[in-house]
């Protein structure tokens, strides 16, 4: 019977997750749920690719390794501390390399331990159990999934850093002194009873609209800037202005130069003949 499910993992975070889940809210809470859901999908994928009987992934929390997700008949529950006494896990933690063991009478299942490295340090590992020896292709597939776990850990750490910085900024703002409100001096003459204290003799605002498009314009303008530019583009040229005529030589200078060069080339060819 399956010991874990995606729902169980989401509602039962590991012990290493509790301090962060209790210290932060909102953004970090969603990041933690996304992290656990991602690991659950990755262990399910590892079991599908390798045909393992059970797969679990452990991550390092506060110096200890804790199972974060698992699937299969004998997979541990999420949040359970890892027993690092088995020799295969010891060798993986010490050398930071994949370790595989064969099935034996003392251990009926073959195992494969694949480390998860971050910046050259071990931050977790995959633990696979199977009825037969794992192949090289199985190791390569789990190694690729280990890189995805590393990415998920980085995303979770980034969420914690972002929310901690936001909390720090909010705390600094809450400790800042509240500025005193400025009050206008009271009038020497008392206001009649019932008259609103906010009543002021403000001049009426004359709002005008563009005669072309209806866009609000300032007082004294008939058109907005866009309509003025459009009208300026369509203003015809001054009919009284005298056009500047270009000389015939200036207009056909390129053609004349081409003909002279061609004639010179023909003359040189004929001369050498």
What does this structure look like?
Strand 1 (54-61) and strand 2 form a beta hairpin. This protein has 273 residues and is of the alpha+beta class. Helix 3 (27-50) packs antiparallel against helix 5 (136-175). The strands form two sheets. It has a five-stranded antiparallel sheet with strand order 2-1-5-4-3, with helices on both faces. A two-stranded antiparallel ribbon has the order 6-7. The chain has a domain at 6-173: 2-Layer Sandwich (Beta-Lactamase). The protein is 43% helix and 16% strand. It has helices at 6-11, 18-23, 27-50, 87-95, 136-175, 225-233, 248-251, 253-272; strands spanning 54-61, 64-72, 99-101, 110-118, 121-130, 208-209, 216-217. It contains eight helices and seven strands; from the N terminus they run H-H-H-E-E-H-E-E-E-H-E-E-H-H-H.
